Amino acid sequence: MKLTIYDTTLRDGTQGEGMSLSLDDKLKLAKRLDEFGVHYIEGGWPGSNPKDMDFFREVKKLKLGHAVVAAFGSTRRANIKVTQDDNLAKILETKTKAATIFGKTWDFHVREVLKTTLEENLNMIFESVEYLKSKGLEVIYDAEHFFDGYKANPKYALDTLQAASKAGAVYLVLCDTNGGTLPAEVCSIISGIRKKIKTPLGIHCHNDCNLGVANSVAAVEAGALQVQGTINGYGERCGNANLTSVIPVLVLKLGIPVVSAKKLTELTELSRYVTEVCNMPLERNQPFVGKSAFAHKGGVHVNAMVKNARTYEHIDPKLVGNATRFLVSELSGKSNVLLKAKELKLDLNNETPETRKILEKVRELENQGYQFEAAEASFDLLMRRIMGKEKKFFAVQECRIHDEPLADRDVTSHPTVKIQTPDKKTRTTEAQGKGPVDALYNALREVLIQYYSIIQDIHLIDYKVRVINESAGTAAKVRVFITFRDEKDTWTTVGVSENIIEASWQALVEAIEYKLLKGEKI
Amino acid sequence: MKLTIYDTTLRDGTQGEGMSLSLDDKLKLAKRLDEFGVHYIEGGWPGSNPKDMDFFREVKKLKLGHAVVAAFGSTRRANIKVTQDDNLAKILETKTKAATIFGKTWDFHVREVLKTTLEENLNMIFESVEYLKSKGLEVIYDAEHFFDGYKANPKYALDTLQAASKAGAVYLVLCDTNGGTLPAEVCSIISGIRKKIKTPLGIHCHNDCNLGVANSVAAVEAGALQVQGTINGYGERCGNANLTSVIPVLVLKLGIPVVSAKKLTELTELSRYVTEVCNMPLERNQPFVGKSAFAHKGGVHVNAMVKNARTYEHIDPKLVGNATRFLVSELSGKSNVLLKAKELKLDLNNETPETRKILEKVRELENQGYQFEAAEASFDLLMRRIMGKEKKFFAVQECRIHDEPLADRDVTSHPTVKIQTPDKKTRTTEAQGKGPVDALYNALREVLIQYYSIIQDIHLIDYKVRVINESAGTAAKVRVFITFRDEKDTWTTVGVSENIIEASWQALVEAIEYKLLKGEKI
After folding, report:
1. A315/B287 CB distance under 8 A
2. Looking at the whole model, is its pTM more than 0.90?
């Protein structure tokens, strides 16, 4: 039997702080997860969230090619018949092929939370699984708090699994619900159970000890045949087992082809797509898929990487669709600057005096609060400026913003921008916008588009502000990163000032300059 | 022999993307790490970074009470004498008690990077360790790429350890430099080596497979006596083993008292202090110490938590200085709102009609882009407003901002703010500020301070902006979070608008209202 990947981003993932998905978001994610090749997609909990019922209706229209969609719920309530249980009725109403229901393993939970007898809990498990199965569903049984329950009362924990197994569950999924179990325990407990139970086991881990991935891998090594988790590890508290780490470890380290090598190269894109749809912050240092995952900064490492990439990379980043990057910062040596120049196709070598000048300028600006590691477009422009290869597409001579009535909460900003255009004329423009950054962008664009039609297709996609010297209060400096994209690329620029508008303006001007420069190069 | 914790936040941590520490930052961190009780603090690499030499001079003046400060460097270069090596000379110049030097384990690296013979590499290790020891230093030997080297050529890898051991190293630290090793491998390799080598072993892991913590724990279980890592897992690429996870796992799960129970309760504060000094983004879902680490959102979990906290928490958060939180969002049930009300000491129960109204309002505002999970002060004000318990301390009638010349990069903002004061007068004030948010704050403060002296001691400590609907480009809505603190608390408020100034203004006004409300309650 083959190992399957069960994604619960749409259900357990949404329990994470800051996560909130619309119906449209959920459908987009389901489509993408299916294309990537996960085996199961847990769509939601119809008994707890009315929005989820809409999802099950709409997802059928997508005609997924690969994944089975599962509806989530719990075993029936105590002391009623399965046919009387609303929650099970809602699962049937979704008309999905598979259902995942969770039940209690830990005697403490049966008494304290369910407030029923150990015997009745076994009946609840058996009857609920049997009922859904009798209606033609593939039933996956999630044994909640399995490891805690097993440590407290192994015999009873096993009885709950046996109940689900006898009733015909296709997987018995062992959940480390509170995330407090260690890999060695996972391994020894699963090895013990496998001798007593024939139904395939699954694993569902949380990351409360930073061991969610390790516990999932340990479970597979001990014989588990299904791994449950979420993309980027989203989920309640510290999140669920991160599938964007689990999957490449399974494929590349253990040689278990849960997805094809070709699909694996889409992993980084998948992770970023999910981040975007979920509107969550990008985790730069995320293993395998993060922007920093293969980013080298230390001079020694960069030096060695030039000789052979294997020296400081445990895999070829291309295998997961990621790429090597070399960072430039005040800690960098010349190697970093030279490599970056090579990346940017600029003519620079160890002997060029500009190499040192660039390093010095980077150190000076980083002291002022700039950061170029994340703003490579600004660094590109900086290098060209120091090498005397700057191209002046336009010059800003003056810029003012007028009157913003704020109290009525319906605001328009009116900037006046005076620009020297490529034909050496001075043009003054007044534009409007929702907020000052938008207004400034509109003013700039209005003039420049007459000279450079290529700026038509660019869009701002991210705008981030961070206070630098927090102790200065509201007078503190801020660092603004602005990210634009066109049809092919995305690029980020940086601005720093005590004034947020001024910092945004710096980044905005550089973002447009960079686009024009890119246009030039073609 | 007791297990020791070796912190390398100041050295390996600074290799992380976006990390940049001043001398002052490094000294602050060293002081705090010492107070917390780590056994070793790696201060820097004097041979590679001149700033690090200043650190070793200044750190002596701090008179640390507990930790040994170590200087980092490499074995001597090939084919020279130890006395001719700059890097070793710089280590001696620091006059620290301990030195940590790394050498090559992997035959591939000796050939490809050092470009020398396997024999000469053994000499380099032996002589470098012996030399520093002869000068009275405690020498820790870092075996770079140990696991990769051992898998490629176990005999040679062992020879390198033997060389350092014979020369008198106090620890042989096995480094998973590229972060590609699995816990089961770490365990079996260390168990094998321990039979052949008597010198205590240490472990130094990277997180490239999301297994940095698991590998460190596996090494300790297999007998390692030193764990190296960084606070918050900062470090190159995906970071180093995260000590804020490793330490509580060792203490609370394995019963190894690497720090006292009392010190452990300072872990969360330590993590946030380091985040702040390093000016890195707060990782909310970080195990043990994150703001979300014990935050409950799902209705079922919140319900059970009310009955017994052990049901969904693997440890008591107080043990690591963290706290349980209940989140309110569109997914919440009444339990969440009621618990929150209890936390805020507001009189609300299941029957109160306001409970449903609050839930509906939260859903409506979250649809518009607000988020209350991270802005609890705004949520507090919202609840009071709906319950008719709002207190109007002041009312803003009008607010304008004038002219901001931007092109000369020296900007002052001039807002005019018209406020109805507590004595029902209308006061108009014009203030100045560096940037519009600062100017608005100054204007508001100027008037209000005459009525409410308690706003004297509040300071803005964080200001975050995020684009909500990115597809709208520069006209997109932004969400602003503003965090203030006074002597006792910190509190966060939220504002949403298409205009960044307007959104900031909303959050600013609520932050001050909240402070006034807090003052009232006392």
Report:
1. no
2. no
